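The data layer described in this paper is built around a simple, fixed record for each protein. We quote a single record here, exactly as it is kept in our systems:
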Amino acid sequence: MADNPSQITLLEKADIVPALLQTFASAIYGALTGPFRGEAGAPTYYQHVAFTALRTMLGRTSIAQSQYLNPSTTETYEAFAKQKGFTPESVTLADGTQAHWLGKKTAQNVILYYHGGGYCLAASLPHFSVLSDIVDQLNAAEKDVAVLFLSYTLAPAGRYPRPIAQGVELLRYTLQHLGKKPSEIILGGDSAGGNLALGVLSHLSHPHPSITPIELTEPLRAAVLIAPWCSFDSTADSFRRNAYKDCIDASSLIPWSRAFMGQAPPDNYNQPLRAPADWWKDSKAEEVLIIAGADEVLVDYIKELASKIESVHEKTTTVIVAKESHDSPFINGMIGIKEPSEQDKVIRSWISSRL
């Protein structure tokens, strides 16, 4: 199934230019207000302007418009491969879902990666560039690792529990067809992809009633959860406190969560924060990294989730980086910042020390 399937109406097409003009106007507003942002705004003037425009664009454009304006995950992967000069290599899972290789498919260790984007937006070029660079860095240190990147079906076509089922199928493929041991597999995901990774972990310990179980012979090596979207609520104080510091806000998160959920009720698989601490007691990842920025609107929920998991899973590391926004390892690249974020550095070091 295509990962970017939404149909756009003629009215939505006609509204694209006004939406882009509104985004441009918000950037001008950000430029004018930037010098007076104080502690309530983003750390740098450039981030203030970029985040103001990004929040407006994400909140102003519909899901169909966003999917129409941007290439699919598969198209972005192929463009990245062409840019980097390697032949794209993809696999098709039993349910028709595609996944894409970064690095050698014969590598001993595999990072199964689930991208962010509110379950509605395709993976960005920085997703592939950052992960490819991590693979290169780890292999230079003789870690022998590759990434297998899931191209899950975007909402609203890919409503819950479809993406989680696709995430489970990627793990099943890696175990059964690639012959990997669980201890050679790391689960990773950012934002909605972090939500998906948590859903897969939940399924391993508490099989979802509509997804075929997987029996592991040992725990997965690790799980890396980058700014995981663990609650679809937007009433935490961090939504107020970080309203002008972050690149996202409730104006986009609410419609994205509704598109993903459809008529499904909230549960421990789709909103991991709802699960009690004991739910994570038998987590099938040997070690867990939870990392986020102190300036993101989701940070209060992420810290609450981390506290629950830490209370029952000893090998859990939580890192909250000061003065960084949501998903900064990838957002930096999206807005043209070349320097790696502190979160990026922590993730690389943590994974390297676990291989």
In short: The radius of gyration is 19 Å. Residues 16-33 form the longest helix (18 residues).
